[in-house]
Amino acid sequence: MALSLSSWSSPAASFLSPPRRFLIPSFQLHASASSSIRPPPKVVLTRELGKNGKLIDALAKHGIPCLEFPLIEHTQGPDLNRLSIVLSDSTFDWIVITSPEAGSVFLDAWKAAGTPNVRVGVVGAGTASIFEEVMRSPQRSLNVAFSPSKATGKVLASELPKYGNRTCTVLYPASVKASNEIEEGLSDRGFEVTRLNTYSTVPVRNVDQTFLTQALSAPVVAVASPSAIRAWVNLIPKSESWNNSIACIGETTALAAKRSGLKNVYYPENPGVDGWVDSIMEALRVHDQLCKALVS
Question: Is residue 157 within 8 Å of residue 190, measured between CB atoms?
Fold first, then answer.
């Protein structure tokens, strides 16, 4: 049975960076509404506020209190203003989208360009969900036509279909900090790739120290990107030996966590929200077992 959620938050400030609004995060604690006493969080959710709903709902079914503690915020990339122009002036065989944020940025530009006909390849189900509303439109001109067998950029680049013997063209709107794995993999297969760096990520500013203390004491921190891993490591006080668990959305983020020196790293074989929830639950089970062993 799903438990209802109660929350409290500090005010969120915002700034406008045309044509998209980027929010400076605030923080929210989610717990069972059946008790007037708020328990300390067991899981820290580090995506921006509003993007943790599925995780919150899944963990609420197990009565697990969560703290929303955003680690990164999104900023405008150098090529953002070019994206709608390119979509208006050029056609591509594929638009490749590899994250929900890249998808949201693309949709804004696509609408500004007059919703031209496009065929989209996404890295996985989480990214595909950004396009659900558009795909339900009966007059839709956007078709999500490909997702790889495994939700990683490397596999996407190796499996994206080619048409005939001609050169296939790809538009790749990406984060400034994304690696070259996608365009290199596609170029090696003969695709002509246009990459536009449409957004970037920076660590959150003005971190509330009370919430940071709670986050540091939580058994599990759930992280969805290498940028968030770096932000978390930078928040750990140098005087502390933090050894609680990191539950990553996929292998790429997990490798970044291990390279950063984090020890207890969990991640699903197939990236995605469902596997992420399983990894969080596994990390909590191990934590509970260790606590019981220490008590006994």
Answer: no
From the DSSP assignment, how many helices (H) and strands (E) are in the chain?
11, 15
Higher pLDDT among residues 272 and 96, named by residue: 96
- What DSSP assignment string belongs to 215-230? HHHSSEEEE-SHHHHH
Question: Max Cα separation, the chain?
Answer: 69
The region, left, alpha or beta by phi > 0 then psi within -120 to 50, assigned to residue 246 is beta
Give the β-pairing of 43-45 and 66-68.
parallel
- The reported pLDDT for the residue numbered 27 is 56
pLDDT of residue 4: 24
pLDDT of residue 272: 76
C-alpha angle 118/120/122, rounded to 5°? Answer: 165
Alpha-carbon distance of 5 to 60, in angstroms, equals 7
pLDDT tens figures, 129-147: 899 888 888 768 999 999 9
The answer to whether residues 146 and 94 touch, using CB atoms and an 8 Å cutoff, is yes
The interaxial angle of helices 273-295 and 53-60, nearest 10 deg, is 40
* Residues contacting residue 101 through CB under 8 Å, at least 6 positions apart: 74, 175, 199
Of the candidates 168, 155, 92, 83, the residue with the CA atom closest to the CA atom of residue 123: 155
- pLDDT tens digits, 209-236: 999 999 999 999 999 999 999 999 999 9
Structure tokens at 168: 């296939």
- Can you tell me the distance from the alpha carbon of 191 to that of 249, in angstroms, rounded to the nearest whole number? 29
* Percent of the chain's residues with pLDDT above 90: 64
pTM over the 0.85 mark: no
Vertex 146: Cα angle to 255 and 76 (nearest 5): 60
Instruction: Answer yes or no: are the C-beta atoms of 171 and 194 closer than 8 Å.
Output: yes
CB 160 within 8 A of CB 182: no
